[in-house]
Write a structure and sequence with these properties.
Helix 8 crosses helix 12 and helix 9 runs antiparallel to helix 12. The longest helix is centred in the middle third of the chain and has 15 residues. Strand 2 and strand 3 form a beta hairpin. This protein has 319 residues and is an alpha+beta fold. It is globular and about 55 Å long. The strands form 3 sheets. A 4-stranded antiparallel sheet has the order 2-3-1-10, with no helix packed on it. Strands 8-7-6-9 form a 4-stranded antiparallel sheet. It has a two-stranded parallel ribbon with strand order 4-5. The protein has 13 helices and 10 strands. It has one domain: C8orf32 fold, CATH 3.10.620.
Length: 319
């Protein structure tokens, strides 16, 4: 798993906190009293404050990136044809992507898949934007299971509680919570190639939330872990998704992880804290292969064998 450098809009805020002097500069207005020694929780709170200050520019940066993509890149409907070894049909065939044909070729399976642009449905988009937030919302059993904590995604972690208490104050809108969490996670985690290599090799099953917060290092998998833990803490059911990004226009072809939030009266919505700071998902480039409570629940031995296609091509046919 790797993060495409061309989609990273959060590095400036990460660099800002490399030394204590930067923290002092941030708080020189007198609104905060800074001592020589900062507790980890205090530092996290200050990082959150800085991130919230630049949140709007993050979203604008991502939307500008979409506008700047080569002509014909952002498509409303895309057909992929790919070959995989161990397909999970229930994961691959769903609202955003529909299997139109599947055939067995030797030990592998060839799948024709059509993805759609969920943002063309104006009624659905309106419901997403205006969904009220209810901390006491109850869900059916199948949805409620994605509120559970796991060893990798601990929604009751002390740091998660503190981050949530600082990020989400008197929130009444579900999307506002999702957007703030996306921005925070996108800016908080520093990409780590060494962790990516361990996950690719099947040695690491992604880092747990506590380790992520302590080190601030990770991959798309760690971004999904941290974001998902925040959502579950806020009583927003969230699934962990793993798939493949095929985006040759930006030379991005790799396994990837993201999250799927459940919004009442809408359903499951894909969001990606790694590649952007907006709820807008790269529907034209991502194929979901697995989902679950966390990485362990996705039944993956290695990403290369279970997730990465043997062959893949994209057929563009509708703007």
């Amino acid at each position: 798993m790797a993060q495409p450098s061309g989609l990273d809009s959060g590095m400036a805020s990460r660099d800002y906190f490399k030394n204590e002097e930067s923290l002092k500069n941030l708080t020189s207005s007198g609104n905060f009293r800074i001592t020589k020694t900062f507790s980890k929780l205090s530092k996290i709170v200050l990082i959150i404050i800085a991130i919230l200050i630049v949140q709007t520019s993050f979203a604008q940066s991502y939307l500008q990136m979409i506008r700047d993509l080569p002509s014909g890149t952002v498509l409303d409907t895309v057909k992929f044809i790919f070959t995989v070894r161990t397909p999970s049909i229930k994961a691959i065939d769903w609202y955003l992507q529909t299997i139109t044909e599947i055939s067995k070729i030797g030990d592998n399976y060839q799948i024709a898949l059509t993805t759609i642009n969920p943002f063309l449905d104006n009624e659905r988009v309106s419901k997403i934007k205006n969904a009220p937030y209810n901390k006491s919302q109850e869900y059916n059993k199948e949805v409620a299971k994605y509120l559970q904590s796991t060893p990798l995604i601990d929604a009751n972690n002390e740091y998660i509680r503190k981050i949530a208490d600082t990020l989400f104050i008197n929130e009444t809108n579900t999307l506002s919570i999702i957007d703030k969490a996306l921005t925070f996670v996108h800016s908080f985690i520093i990409p780590s190639d060494s962790i990516a290599k361990l996950i690719d090799a099947g040695i690491c099953r992604t880092l747990d939330v506590n380790t992520i917060i302590e080190t601030r290092k990770g991959t798309c998998g760690e971004s999904a872990n941290l974001f998902t833990s925040l959502m579950r803490h806020m009583n927003i059911p969230t699934r962990y998704a793993v798939g493949y990004v095929y985006f040759p226009e930006l030379n991005w072809m790799d396994t990837h992880a993201w999250s799927e939030c459940y919004i009442e009266d809408v359903g499951w919505c894909s969001v990606d804290a790694t590649s952007n700071a907006s709820y807008i998902f790269l529907h034209f480039a991502c194929i979901r292969m697995r989902y679950g409570l966390d990485y362990e629940d996705c039944d993956i031995q290695t990403l290369n064998y279970d997730i990465e296609p043997v062959e893949i091509k994209k057929v563009k046919y509708s703007k």
